[in-house]
């Protein structure tokens, strides 16, 4: 089948292209090689460069999108601005790329006469949930509100039951959990989902939204100071700079390896998989402090790990996916344990030149706008 991957030169996109080529698919990649992600590089990885059709262009450019869409059976829409923190003060940029870009894609699909499109897959994010689902001993499953600045300043980092105010315990969040994004990034991903599902309903094709957890692995951008704490911590540790951990370090994430994320994406491209939303993760979580210790230890770094107590607007406390639905619908089974995957990622990072990613500058941008509290 013919497959278009928007944002296909990126971390997930290029790995997905490799997977599709192994399945004898004809692959087209549309990418604008955003310098924040790609640095000065404007070429595809050598192992796929000669095997795919590359359209260099922006997803907001109707002409570029129209060219890339010609004769496609499936579209995998990955092109987006990503980064919770940056989205809180680059609101127009995130809305323009993620929401307007998706609208341009949908408009271009509607303009196709005739169209052979039979499925569309959207890279969404667990950010649409906000804090997600928790458990209160008294009130059962609850959806905590966004944590208040007053509570965070007082060191009360755990979300509270919205009914009785007791400390709640994180649970794996299922797809049935009501979306309550706490960042503009999460809001734009939810708007992307709604746009795609409405389009699919109108034209009568299945659409799938994949709510990825924290995807990591070899090839991840080391240039982007707004996404990927593994990449940020690796850059800091390799240059023996302090590794600063927000809050009390016990905030946690569900880290899913690139290979597993790509396999999940391939699985939902199959005709027998029903349309709808699917979580992509492992169902396990690791604390940010644990991650920092693993990174510093791997590099035998002199970097001190500093638990700062600081916090950012838009961040959530915990994240862990309920992946029962994806397992039931597909052959998906997370195959890479975090302990193994993180060593593999750090071994790859060790072969790359350390990058000054502007991490402190990114925090300064938020501090100046009252979005980062120390």
Key features of this structure:
37% helix; alpha/beta; 374 residues; Rossmann fold; 18 strands; seven-stranded parallel β-sheet; three-stranded antiparallel β-sheet; 14 helices; 2 domains
Please characterize this protein's 3D structure.
This protein is of the alpha/beta class and 374 residues long. It has two domains: 2-133 and 172-373, Rossmann fold, CATH 3.40.50; 135-170, no CATH class. The protein has helices at 11-22, 35-38, 46-49, 62-68, 84-87, 91-111, 149-153, 184-203, 229-238, 258-268, 288-298, 324-329, 338-349, 359-368; strands spanning 2-6, 26-31, 53-56, 74-77, 119-125, 134-136, 140-142, 169-170, 207-212, 214-216, 243-245, 252-253, 255-257, 276-280, 286-287, 305-307, 311-312, 372-373. The strands form six sheets. A seven-stranded parallel sheet has the order 3-2-1-4-5-9-14, sandwiched between helices. It has a three-stranded antiparallel sheet with strand order 7-6-8, with no helix packed on it. The protein is globular. The protein starts with a strand and ends with a strand. 49% of the residues are buried.
Largest sheet: 7 strands, parallel
Number of helices: 14
The CATH architecture of the largest domain is 3-Layer(aba) Sandwich
Give the rounded overall mean pLDDT.
95
- Give the helix proportion (percent range): 25-40%
């Amino acid at each position: 089948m013919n497959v278009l991957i928007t944002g296909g030169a990126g971390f997930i996109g290029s790995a997905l292209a490799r997977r599709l080529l192994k399945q004898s698919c004809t692959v087209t990649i549309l990418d604008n090689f955003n310098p924040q992600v790609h640095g000065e590089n404007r070429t595809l990885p050598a192992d796929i460069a000669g095997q795919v059709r590359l359209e260099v262009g922006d997803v907001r450019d109707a002409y570029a999108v129209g060219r890339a869409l010609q004769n496609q059976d499936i579209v995998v829409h990955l092109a987006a601005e990503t980064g919770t923190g940056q989205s809180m003060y680059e609101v127009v940029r995130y809305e323009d790329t993620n929401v307007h870009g998706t609208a341009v894609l949908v408009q271009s699909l509607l303009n196709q006469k005739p169209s052979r499109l039979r499925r569309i897959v959207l890279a969404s994010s667990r950010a649409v949930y906000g804090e997600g689902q928790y458990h209160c001993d008294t009130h059962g499953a609850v959806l905590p509100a966004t944590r208040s600045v007053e509570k965070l300043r007082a060191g009360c980092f755990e979300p509270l039951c919205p009914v009785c105010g007791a400390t709640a315990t994180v649970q794996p969040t299922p797809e049935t959990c009501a979306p309550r994004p706490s960042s503009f990034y999460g809001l734009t991903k939810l708007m992307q989902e709604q746009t795609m599902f409405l389009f699919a309903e109108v034209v009568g094709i299945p659409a799938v939204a994949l709510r990825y957890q924290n995807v990591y692995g070899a090839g991840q951008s080391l240039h982007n100071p707004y996404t990927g704490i593994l990449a940020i911590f690796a850059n800091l540790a390799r240059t023996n700079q302090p590794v600063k951990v927000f809050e009390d370090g016990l905030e946690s994430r569900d880290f899913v390896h690139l290979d597993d994320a790509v396999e999940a994406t391939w699985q939902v491209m199959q005709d027998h998989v029903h349309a709808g939303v699917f979580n992509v993760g492992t169902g396990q979580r690791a604390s940010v402090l644990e991650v920092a210790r693993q990174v510093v230890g791997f590099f035998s770094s002199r970097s001190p790990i500093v638990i700062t107590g600081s916090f950012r607007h838009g961040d959530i406390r915990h994240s862990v996916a309920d992946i029962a639905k994806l397992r039931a619908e597909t052959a998906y089974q997370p195959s890479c344990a975090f302990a193994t995957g993180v060593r593999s990622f750090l071994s790859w990072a060790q072969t790359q030149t350390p990058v000054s990613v502007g991490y402190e500058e990114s925090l300064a941008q938020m501090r100046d706008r009252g979005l980062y509290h120390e």
